[in-house]
Amino acid sequence: MKKSIIISPGDSVGVALAALKKGETAEGITLTEDIERGHKFALRAIKTGEPVIKYGAVIGRATADIEPGSHIHTHNMKTCLEGTLEYTYRKKDTAPVPAGAPRTVEVYERANGEAGIRNELWVIPTVGCVNAQARAIVEAFRKKHGELPGTDGCFTFTHPYGCSQIGEDHERTKRLLQRMVKHPNCGGVLVLGLGCENNRMDVFRETLGEYDESRTRFLVAQDVTDEISEGVKLLEELYESAKNDRRVPRNISCLKIGLKCGGSDGLSGITANPLVGRFSDYMASVGGTTVLTEVPEMFGAEQLLMDRAKDEATFGKIVDLINGFKEYYQKHGQPVYENPSPGNKAGGITTLEDKSLGCTQKSGSGEVCGVLFDGDSLTAHGLNLLNGPGNDMVAVTNLGCAGCHLVLFTTGRGTPFGGFVPTVKISTNSELAKHKPNWIDFSAGGIAEGESFDSKLDELIELVAAVASGKQTVSERYDSRDIALFKTGVTL
Hints:
The strands form 6 sheets. A 7-stranded parallel β-sheet has the order 19-20-18-17-21-22-23, sandwiched between helices. It folds into 3 domains: 4-78, Archaeosine Trna-guanine Transglycosylase, Chain: A, domain 4 (Roll), CATH 2.30.130.110; 120-244, 3-Layer(aba) Sandwich (Rossmann fold), CATH 3.40.50; 252-477. The longest helix has 20 residues, at 312-331. The termini are far apart. β10 and β11 form a beta hairpin. The chain is globular, with a radius of gyration of 24 Å. α1 (131-145) crosses α4 and α2 crosses α10 (392-401). The protein is of the alpha/beta class. It has 13 helices and 23 strands.
């Protein structure tokens, strides 16, 4: 088993793939300190102020003289990131990805022609005041109807918003909930309101756009004597239609798949993230769609994404995406580089550039075909970028509301979280997958142990096809299903 790696020619650091001891030789260098797995060591002398190179790019600057074989981390390097920048359009040709093998998935065909990979009944509160009522409706309905044959279950997704919000926060909350109402993974939805919230039901319905009226019901709790029994009655109407839905074969290109990482470690950019990047390239090659978000975790790697923009208009949108999020940080008086997290650092990630260059490995090597801001819908096949923060729950919610059927979620530290769409957890190392089988769906750790990317890619494609065709993720089996709505403004 290989114990270390140089990711890109010209790098000034190597990365430990296993714990290394002082005095060992790694990449031709005698180590002067113990190096934990995922952490970096110097391949050559680096003077104070000189750039540190990893992934073939700058991940920070040395804050002290660093000798060959020394540990490089927060004690002797720092970020180079600053505020908003000017960027130059310099499109680079992306190597064409050979067309992948066609795959068939079994999905539900909705009335508007969209594909859904689940046939669930949902209760969606318009306001946090009725969260308990939404849960009570679902509990009473489940108790009455048991396993709900013909569907994949009945769930509610509670949140604290929908009232005491103004401006963009209010509009965003309404818009995200409306996107959930029309999500193709839902075979029937009950929208539950209170009656006095500023996310008013009448406005919600008027601005919902086209929707399947046979699969959508609305209930205002203040308008009825017993909202629980009324809610159960409306779910029963929806169940009568949804239970007769059947899966049909469609090409895997019908899928829209979100790309996300959380609890990253030093192996994220070496195993799981580049594997997901290869999967993204595969989806593009067969006419499918992938979506990368976490804008703050593009900082330091943004030029690489800009160089892959399909045209100058797309490049301009990426610039707006990056600088817009930096301005959001600055508006609140926060540094744009307040990242990585303590868990990231413990796993070997030192600076935001280090994290971003590993994070964006999930984008693969193909063109960036589309950029989505608040209110935009997915229209471009291939790789898209989506506005939003790195927070796990917010990011997965945003991806689902953008239209993603499922999310590939890579992690080096582990998390039990699952979103309102199936969330496939991919571990960066084998130990995590063995330690947390109740969290992890797929291990990419074998790549660090000598397995090929090609073989792991085949396995991942098979898993995605299986999940799309009905196989439950671990988080689904443990009923881990949450949403978090992004807010930027005041609460009244």
